[in-house]
Amino acid sequence: MSFKVALPKGRLMEDTAAVLTDAEWGFDGYHAKARFYRLKSKKYPDVEAKIFHEKDIPIQVAVGNYDIGICGLDWVEELVSKYPNSEVINLYNLGYGKGALYAASAADINQVEEIGSNGQTVRIASEYPNLAEALAEKLRLKHFVIYPLWGAAEAYPPENAELILLPRKTPQELLERGLKPLFKMLDFRACLIANKKSLKNKDMGRLVSSIIDNLPPAEEDSASEITDEQPSKVEVWNLKDNELKMALPDGHQQPHVRKLFAAAGIEMTDYPSETGNRRPKSPSLSDVAFKLIRPQDMPLQVANGNFDIAITGRDWLTDHLYQFPSSPVEELLDLKYGWVRIVAVVDNDVPIESVADYKEYYKGKNVRIATEYTNIADYYARNNHMVKYRIVPTWGATEAFIPEDADIMVENTETGGTIKRHNLKIVDTIFESTACIIANKESKKNKVKKAEMDKIVKLMCKALEEGQ
Amino acid sequence: METKRCKGCNDSSPDSMKKFRQIEQALQDCCKSWGYQEIRTPMLEYLHLFTAAGTLTPGMLRRVYSFLDWDGWSGERVVLKPEGTIPAARYYIENGGGEIARLYYVTNNFIFEETGTKARERWQGGVEFIGAGGATVDVELISMALEVLGRSGFSKVKLNLSHAGLVRALLANLNVSETEQNNLFNRILDGEITALEGIRPDNSEMVKIFELILDMKGKSSAFLRNIKAMVPTQYKDIKEALNDLLSSTELLDELGITYQIDLTSGKGFEYYTGIIFRLALNGQNIGGGGRYDALIPLLGGEKKAAAGFALYMDRLVNILAVKEENEAESVSIEAVDGSEKLTFKYAEAMRQAGYCTVIKAGSTDNARWKLRIDNRGGISLIDDKIKKEYNTSSLEEAVATVRGENVL
């Protein structure tokens, strides 16, 4: 009998790896620089382990693809708040990875009852959209919208959301960023979860006890409770009439954007920022308000009017447009860096060389397509007349899913190296993506905003031409 | 590759549809005769119609089918409507209101049910009276519900009464927070009869009254009058609610309509403010309604009293026996090669004469009368019931034979 174990990358990886090392599981590649997502245990040859983004783990365990997993309780709660009958059970609190999920707002809100009290729509931004919905129901909000995010929820209030739900170790971390923690939705730590059927039918005792017997001392309960302390003063947008609102990427795209801006003669202050400032300024573009958010979230945030213009990837724009075909977002300018192909990928051993082979090979089968681009994949499946298909949303490490947990992967690739390394092959290039400037068509109808957009586009065009 | 219907959704067979239409006809006939007009509202409504406190209980809201529409980039969600009263109230407000509106509708609703063994799509016939309150209106609606059931062929319907205002007034006299009061109210309305176990007011005077009221199951107007007399004057809200319930029960008594009082027989909707009634048949809930005076203003309309009820068509169809009726005997027409164009003419003539007529295809033929037309216009007619063949020389003669006019 084999056992499948789902292990987290990211925030819990180091501590989890330490526990498994102490338990002598004998994994070679379970560390931050892991190039493969599949692991074999020297101590337990019947164990197959894979590395996933934490958010995927409760889902993979609940659907029965994995017998046990380690992830934060916050992600388990995110799943069961919407799907309370999920077949996943929390076996053990592992004691490390401590944090809390806070509902927070801008500094000028004193208590949660103020939210929505003026009858306006409450915008709730979070990486936990199911818990955000539960929060809206708990608060009996009449008008609310949920912005599901890939990250950077702390950037949104007050200009772009009234309420956010995000994880932090202490409320001080929010107060320092000028945010007011309103209440604590839940405390969480890393936990060991299991599939209910596996728990009934498989003897996993030795695996479970080897983990529990090698836990570090539990992290102390530190001050996660909210006090009366007031948030620090943080400068927020002070928008003038017709001021253009521009979203810039956080994360690894920052040096590219900075370089391009410099070539365009657009001076930026505090971008990238060493203090975590998400509202840089530009002396060259003094009528533009900037904010840093995740590139994946930009098309939606431009469509809903939170921003007029943004720099993101064409891949995320395309995914957004497949979900909302009549969205007011359009591409203004190709910035020509960050080139990737969006490809369809299958296992090397499958007799598919091109899309022409899909029909025959997948006839009568339920095709599972794993991807971060759920809308592109959905369109792709329908366009290729796949009769029975299911989209498996992932948050990274998608290569790990094929072949056991997915049949096809829709992914971005630059060299194809990661794909080859995982014994996979590309069978179709769906489209090519580069970084681009996107804008809201409605904003372009405002003459002042359009003039500012045109100015930015012209400067960037010139920089691109000179750069060639 | 198998194709099967969605979990929790049911097809309706021809027999089921016959029964459905029978009940629907009874609803239409009754409503028309009481002065009500039919409306229809869309299947998709905005989620925010159902989210505010005072609409659906959180338990129900969690089971609503909501999603982003194709143009939902603002985050605004739409739902497959989970019930009919709130959309009808929205219709009333959006279409100018008016002093009094008597409306009815037949609609399907969607509410998730986790086992997949019960229906997630449900059909109901709904009736709403918007614009006036009082016992006369409450009893009008109860009478109509009973009349529709009677016309449909149901008997021995049980009527249970509760009162949202009385339940709320009782809860307000407990030593619990407003949030907890709302929670208990929703639990009681969601059918959880044990919600009040162990919870009692601090005041010993109220404890006695509380226990009497909770023990009201099955009691009559006389009992209600006695309780009302016992409630001290300062508990105005309890006295008012008892008065309101009493005014309806006394009228029901005068009309000879029997009922049971059971405070826990409300279900699922936070919008009730006054009387709530449930209808049961063979131990199953088959409909219910009540007064919802706060709903119209909550949805942005003026202050308007309103009440209504719904009958659960799917359950009624399952209970109803098929009506034995003499179905019109059918005719089939078969064309021998070359006479196809005549078949339509002959079929039309038979239909005009009132007979269900099929143009034969395939080998199966269940019609009583089988007409064969050859390409010279010759007609052979067989009565399959008595296995007799007639030679008829014209269409008129064939029609007369089927009518029984030509038979010796």
Account of the protein in words:
The complex is a heterodimer of chains A (468) and B (408). Chain A is α/β, with parallel strands linked by helices and 468 residues long. Helices cover 27% and strands 28% of the residues of chain A. Chain A is built from 15 helices and 21 strands. In chain A, the strands form four sheets. In chain A, strands 2-3-1-4-11-5 form a six-stranded mixed sheet. In chain A, strands 8-7-9-6-10 form a five-stranded mixed sheet. In chain A, helix 3 (73-82) packs across helix 4 (129-138) and helix 10 (314-323) packs across helix 12 (374-383). Chain A is globular. The termini of chain A are far apart. The mean pLDDT of chain A is 93. In chain B, strand 3 (66-68) and strand 4 form a beta hairpin. Chain B is elongated and about 95 Å long. An eight-stranded mixed sheet of chain B has the order 1-5-6-11-10-9-7-8, sandwiched between helices. In chain B, strands 13-12-14-15-16 form a five-stranded mixed sheet, with helices on one face. In chain B, helix 1 runs antiparallel to helix 4. Helix content of chain B is 36%, strand content 21%. Chain B contains 13 helices and 16 strands. Chain B has helices at residues 14-33, 58-61, 85-94, 135-152, 164-172, 178-189, 204-214, 221-230, 236-255, 295-298, 313-319, 340-352, 395-403, and strands at 37-38, 44-46, 66-68, 77-80, 101-110, 121-130, 158-163, 260-261, 275-281, 284-291, 306-312, 331-335, 357-359, 369-373, 379-383, 388-392. By secondary structure, chain B is α+β, with helices and mostly antiparallel strands. Classes of the chains: A alpha/beta (468), B alpha+beta (408). The interface between A and B is medium-sized, with 29 and 18 residues.
